[in-house]
Structures are given as C-alpha cells and as structure tokens.
Structure of Magnesium transporter MgtE:
Amino acid sequence: MEHLDDQERQEVWANIKDALFNDHIDQFRAEFLELHPYDQARIFEDLEKDVRLQIYTYLSPEEVADVMEHIDYDEIEPFFTEMAPPFAAQVFAEMSTDDAVDIFNELDKDKVASFLTIMDDDAADEIKDLLHYEEKTAGSIMTTEFVVVKAGMTIREAMVHLRTEAPDAETIYYTYVIDEDKRLVGVISLRDLIISEEEWLISDVMNERVVSVSVGEDQEEIARMVRDYDFLALPVVDFQDHLLGIITVDDIMDVMEEEASDDYSKLAAISDVDSPDDHAFASAKKRLPWLVILLFLGSLTASLIGRFEETLDQVAILAIFIPLIAGMAGNTGTQALAVAVRGITTGEIEKQGKWKMMLREAGTGLITGFSCGLLMTLIVYIWQENFFLGLLVGLSIFLTLVVATLAGSLVPLLMHRLKIDPAVASGPFITTINDLISIMIYFGLATAFMNLLI
Amino acid sequence: MEHLDDQERQEVWANIKDALFNDHIDQFRAEFLELHPYDQARIFEDLEKDVRLQIYTYLSPEEVADVMEHIDYDEIEPFFTEMAPPFAAQVFAEMSTDDAVDIFNELDKDKVASFLTIMDDDAADEIKDLLHYEEKTAGSIMTTEFVVVKAGMTIREAMVHLRTEAPDAETIYYTYVIDEDKRLVGVISLRDLIISEEEWLISDVMNERVVSVSVGEDQEEIARMVRDYDFLALPVVDFQDHLLGIITVDDIMDVMEEEASDDYSKLAAISDVDSPDDHAFASAKKRLPWLVILLFLGSLTASLIGRFEETLDQVAILAIFIPLIAGMAGNTGTQALAVAVRGITTGEIEKQGKWKMMLREAGTGLITGFSCGLLMTLIVYIWQENFFLGLLVGLSIFLTLVVATLAGSLVPLLMHRLKIDPAVASGPFITTINDLISIMIYFGLATAFMNLLI
C-alpha cells in the first residue's frame, strides 16, 4: 500500500465520520487505529470541536498521545485546553518526554504547572528536569526513555531486560552500557546482540568507543554528527559522563528541517517562511519589521545619492545605471554571503582557515568584476555611444564587485567571531552595505572625472 | 568518548603515520580500524598518494569500501584511479549498492564499464540495474541489500534467517514479508520480532499496512514521508508491488541536506553553495553565469529608466529614490517568493489551494504597502520639505509593494504549473521583474504629475 493520498484520506475519513455519527465505537477504533499516527493527526485536526470531544472518550490517553505527537506544536494548544485536565495530564504522561517538553514550551506557564500537579509523579519529574534545558541544545531535544544494561550481564539477561523495556523505550536498536556509577562505558546495537551467543558477556561484545554528546551541545552540531556518522541514536551525557538521555534520528530530521528553513528564511529577510496557512495580517506581521528596517536602510542610500545631487544635475543620465550597479553589488554580496554562511554552518571554513577563504573570495571578485566590468563597458559604449560613460560604468562595476564580494564573506565571518548567528546578516544588512559602497564608488568616480563626461 | 575533535584527530593521526612509516601493519590496523569510517575517511583524504597506495595493501577491499563510502563523491575519482583495477572492483563489490551507484555516476563511462567487467557477476548485475534509474528518484537512492522473509515462516525461522543475512544487510531493523510472487505483503520490525513468541507465524505478527514508495518517486517527496512518518527505512516497489529495494534513513538525511542546500543556493543565485574548498576560478565559474544574466537584466532596467530621461532632466532629485524603491520591490518579492517556494516544497499550498494563497498575499501586500508607503511619505516630507515628492514616493512604494508581493508568489506558482522547479525563479528573475515594475510605477507617476513636482 502506498501512503495515504488525498483521495484515500477522503474515503477513510467518510468511514470514520460514519462511525462517529452512529456512535459505533468499535468501528471507529478499527478504522482509526489502523492508520499511521501521522494520518490520524491529519484527520483529527480537520474535525469540529464536539467530534473531537467524542473521540477523547473513544480512545485511551496513550492512543491520543500518539495522535498529539504528530500535530504541529504551534497549533496544539486548543486541543489540550478542551480536554478534561486529568485526561490531558494522562496524555502527557504517555508521550515521549521530549515531545511532552516541546509541547509544554508552547503552552502558558500556569497551564503547564496545573498539568504537572495532577500528573503521575515520575512522569512529572522527568518532564520538569527536561524543561530546564536551554532551547536548541541536546538537553532540550533528548528523551529519557532509553534502555541501559550493566557491563557484567550476559547477552541472555540483556535480551530479557530489553524485551521488558521495549514497549516504553524510544528506541531499542541501541542499548547503552553503564558502570556502577551510572557512567556511560559502552554501547551495543540490537544487531550485535542478536548475532551474539547467549552466554557471552555484554562487556565482551560492547563497543567501548561510544560517541556521545554533552547535554549543552548545539542541536545543529548534533545533526551534523548524526548525518556524518550515520547514527540512529546518540547518547547525551553530563560533564562526568553520566548518561542523561538519548537523541533519536527522527528528532534529528526535524532539527535539520528547522535549521534549513531558518537559514532560508533569513536569506529571504523574513522571520519564518514556513507557515503558508497564516492569514494576511499574521504574514504581514512577519515581514513588516524587515521591510521597515530596509526602508530606513534604503533612506541611507537615498541620502547618500542626495549628496551627489550636483553631479546628478549636471549629468542626469548617470541615474540610469544606479539600480544596475547597486543590484550587481547586492547580488554578488548575497552569493559570497551564502557561501560563507554555509561554510560556517558545515564547519568547512573552520577547517581550511578564514584567510584562505578571504583570499579566494578576493580572487573570485577580481575575476567576476573584470568580466562583468568589461562587458558593461562595451554595452554602454555601443548603446550610449559615449566611451567615457562606458568606462565609468564598467570601472564602477569592477570595483563594486571586488569590494562587495569581500564584504559578503567578511561580514558573516565577523558576526561569527562576535558569536552572532551569521545568517542574520544576510538579506538586508549585506545588501544595504553593498548599495552604499557601490553608490559611493560610482558617484565618487563620476564626480572626480566629471570633465570627461560633459 | 566524544567524537573526534581536531586535536584528537591530530594525535591519532600521529600514531597512524608512525605505524605507516615503520611498516607496522598490525599497529596501523589496530589504530585505524578503531575509528569510525567517517573519521577514517577524513584522515585518509589528507594523505599523500604513496601513503594511500601503502594503505590499500594493509586493508581488505571491505575495509577500504567503508572508508570510500564516507568520502565526498565529487572528489573520489582519483582514489579509484590509483587503485589496481581488480582491487577497485572488489571495493565496489563490497560497498552498499546505492553508494557504489552514486560513485559510478561521478566516474567516466569507460572506467565504469571496465570495473563492471572485472567485478563479480552478481554485484555487477545489481549495480547495473540501479544505474538505469533516473537521478533523484527512489530507484537511484535505494539499496538492494535488504532482508525478506516469507509470510509462512515462524518467528524462530525468521530470526535464524535474519542472523545469517545481518552482515550484508543495510538494515535489519525492518524485515519485509513477501508472497509467492515476490510481492510485498507486510513488514515486521526487529522490535516486534524479539518480543514475539518463537513459534508464532510471521503472518500473525506482521504489519500488513506497509507503506512503500514506487521506484520513480521523487526523492524530496520520499524525504518528506520518512520525516512525517518517522520511518527508519522505506521499501521501494515497482507498479506490481514487487519489492525492489529499500531506502534507509541515513540516505534520507543526505537527501534533505542536498535539497535544502539546493533551495538555498538558488535563492542566493549561485549554482552550488556547498564547496568552500574551491579555488577562485572554480567559484567564479559558478557565480559568473548568474552575474552575467543579472547584468543583462539590469541593463533592461537601465534602458527603462533611459526612457524617462526627460523627466529625470527636469527633476534630478527623483534619482535619489530609485535604489530605495527598486530595493523594496526586490525585498518584498523575495519574501513572497520564499514563502511560495517553501509552500510548494512542503505541499502546503497544494493542500490549501492557490487562490487562497494569492488572496492572502494580496492582503499582505496591501498591509505592508500601506504601512511603508505612509512612513516614507512622512520621512520624505520632513527631509525634503516637499509634500508632493513625499506623496509620490509613498504612493510608489505602496503600489510597488502590492504588485511585487503578488508577483513574488505568482511567478513560482506559474513555474510549478509549467513543471519548472520554482526555486530557479528566485534571486535574479523575481528581482528584475520587480525592479522593472517599480521603476515603471515610480517614473510613470512622476511623469504624470510632473506639474506638481516642479
């Protein structure tokens, strides 16, 4: 069977609606629970409130928890508000701790406190612990439902233990080995467990070079490790190597998606590109702050040109090439910036050194600047039949491209040094700097060589 | 142990170099094979050619295959060229078929043919089959090393089979169930296998609602499914539901990275943002084509302004606001475009309908346009003490933002309809269209109301 496409979802949906309408609990449960929780969530969020209330009585807290884990957390609040609080608390207790924590971070603090009060103590404690970790660190994305064994166990004992723990564990494909002080000393994959003899000791077959991350590690760095090393899960430890939790590959995929969309949004100068279901006001709210900043930055450019009003009055034709030159500066700066931001993100630049990169960007700027400058000199010469105007425009483009390329890579490197996320620099900042630089060069040259132009 | 940082790599590297220099095979093997293949690859690619040749004699083809799977495929060619061809063929035979195919796609055709000739027939046939699939489809990223069982087997028989297959399989965490005609009929996770009783039948415990993808499915769609459904692997079938291969989550992470970097590169108008180790010429080559296109598109803008030379001659101060207005058009267009491209990529727009989206973008444009226009009218009025100039600039910004926002979402939708990747439209295209629109509006209004300005 393929995954559910829209038509199949419509059919299943009709059956489920029918069951709900006729109060056929069994039929509803049979149809609904057959679906993957992702599809359950898609159907669930399309329902009216009274139908959802009916569903809460048809499903167990555990089954509702599966559905909730696949709802967009930005939009989950109303569902937990409409559930009876004791039921909602049970649903939270049945969720993976990492998902429960993510959802709690979206709810208001009073509501969270009230859920934690009615919740089972063990579950509440686990969640409280995780709520302390800073966003986007290992601690905030890890789960505490993992399986551990002692190094002295036999394979047989470990397998028995694993079978008992399996229902609650986030993954059983890696089992972590701890010593008497609960320090992480090894890892063994289920693959290795099932091909080992039952009487062997864990300590004989475990891998002692277990790769772990510290609880404060940045999620982007963790995503890079999981991708490079092809892990399905990574253990999280404190500074004394005590095992605190694990991060599984499905959470890593969400991190990758989040980080990619973050970088993309920043390059486009917009706070969050990923909610095309917003209304016009919500989406204007996300874009307007950037646009207003850009407006003020643009006014800077305007006032700079204003200083050359005399030059403009004498040779009005100069105005024709302003958007072209400023545009080229913005474009080449964005290119260099994108390469630098990605290089910082992937760690490539750290590896090969900043100077080497600046040198290469300077070279790139010289080559692209020379080519475009020469081309433009010819175009303007032929079009306007004015050699000096052509030379002026061409020379401006040459200089602009060299400087703008360098600025495009220098600015993110500086921001990175100052511990600011370099992706923030992208759109507005670099483009305005380069607008200013390009206009200074263009009108500076024009004013200096005015006698050749008129 | 944390993963290797630069300093640790230096230490290990010193030991390994020492072993190589003194011809201590055992010491080399002990140090080198202890590392994760990802780290092995990082050390390996930093070595001189004669040292690499020495390593090929110290390691088995299988061990070299592990290293090669973690080298960047763009840069892998020299390594396979320097190996003895029979050894290289053995290395390929030991690799996952999907990785071997990816590498073959980077080598020239004659070399591939010669490797396939000396390779073991079975391995060669598997790779040949995969070489036929189109790039970026399920077929091109799947591997053929998966484990299948028959529905009539007992759990015990299945586990015995699994233990035998484990060393060669890409993953054993999912076992696929096929019928007599080799059609995919179910899936069973290793988790379910180990908690089931040994005498139960596979057909009793398998999940019959197995989600699969067809061999021609686009890799981006597959990545979305794996992420939404939290799969560790997905089976690939032909149109008759025969199981052809599987796609594992580690390949999906590479796809996600590739697609994200692709979209990002296109927004920055650069062919490939991801190789900061290029030399200046190589990186100029990637950027120059875009810059030249932009240069010609910019010339269009220039010639459009040229048509308003008379207006400019009369009111030279108009030139001051050209970059501001064109810049705002470009920025708002890029914002709308980024939202539309992401919406198309994630399928959100398909779901909610194009008209709803256009309507929302129109609303957003009206709100942002009105706010920015009003603000700019005030700024220009105060700064230049000219109310009509302020009104002209403000009105131009209002109209420009409305039209540019609409254009920014309309263009990618049109391209999507025409089956062109909408991300291509990004940087240059939308910015130029919006430059032209904004200048037409600004100078059109200025020319029409000239008498109020002078």
Notes: Chain B has a mean pLDDT of 84. The domain at 280-453 of chain B is CATH 1.10.357.20 (Tetracycline Repressor; domain 2). The CA atoms of residues 414 and 422 of chain B lie 8 Å apart.
